[in-house]
Amino acid sequence: MSGGARKRIRMTEPVLYSFRRCPYAMRARMALSVSGAAYEHREVVLRDKPPAMLEVSPKGTVPVLVTTEGEVIEESLDIMRWALEQADPEGWLERRDQALVAANDGPFKHHLDRYKYATRYDDVDPQEHRSAALEVLQRLENRLEGGDYLCGDRRGFADIAIFPFIRQFANADRPWFDAQKLPKLQSWLEGLVSIALFTGIMTKHPQWHEAGAD
User: Fold this and answer.
1) Which residue segments constitute the domains of the chain, with CATH numbers given?
2) Region 113-136: what's the mean pLDDT?
């Protein structure tokens, strides 16, 4: 949020407003998990956003982290960095490629949305956007020729920031995705969705309601 002062609310522990299936929230939760940071998880239903979240973050998107000092962090990459600055046991911050993440969050996400959610857009050919997204995936396939992960032989910031979106793309039409000649990328994705770090942050939470709310 820009312009004007935002009310700062002190918490006894950080609070994360999240939505289980949101890829932005997934990467934030994974960074918080690997860092060992304690926080209160507040599961949001996007059609019924809690007033407490909208008070601290009027833009109304997840994830949102409110620190114990009352700082509001509204972007998932910033939440990842905040968590890893507290503790980074696997050295994720040493393996972040800003250009790679920007290509995912920009061009790839643009095509992913118009492929997976074509009905939300006017005059969109989902197959055209699938083909354009596939070109981005081919570059990742080529990148993985150099190691098991995007920045070497160990998972890092770039892998965790990107793979939830590749998972979303793959699941839009799994038989088609599995038939593509992307063996390294497919193996990379399967490895990341199978790790305990990911399955652990995909635990289902009930919708959070503020105490005293109707």
Assistant:
1) 15-91 (3.40.30.10), 92-195 (1.20.1050.10)
2) 96
